[in-house]
Amino acid sequence: MRFSIITVLVAAASTALAIDISEAPACAQTCLTDNAGSSTCDPTATSPTCFCADTNYYNLVANCVASTCSTADVLATLTWYDTTCPT
């Protein structure tokens, strides 16, 4: 039992995104990857469509960016998001 709990924790901690976030500011990249485990989307998906539609994930990332990034990086993140997730 202990092994399976540790395995789940390690897997959750190492969640990475397959979508391209390289154009987002570094602080936003951290927020995007740190909150990926909270999304219902498949982290191996290469299309951002699901992540763009996941309002819970968006809110978590937005709160993280607002609290950890500079004003310039917040604005750059919004520009990146608008480009990545056109409506």
From TrEMBL:
Residues 1-18 form the signal peptide. Belongs to the RBT5 family. The keyword Ligase does not apply. Disulfide bonds join C52-C85. It holds the Pfam family CFEM. Residues 1-87 form the CFEM domain. It is a lipid-anchor; GPI-anchor. Keywords: Disulfide bond, Glycoprotein, GPI-anchor, Lipoprotein, Membrane, Secreted, Signal. Transmembrane segments: none annotated. The keyword tRNA processing does not apply. It is found in: Membrane; Secreted. Coiled coil: none annotated. It comes from the Eukaryota. This is CFEM domain-containing protein. One of its GO terms (cellular component) is extracellular region. Its main location: membrane.
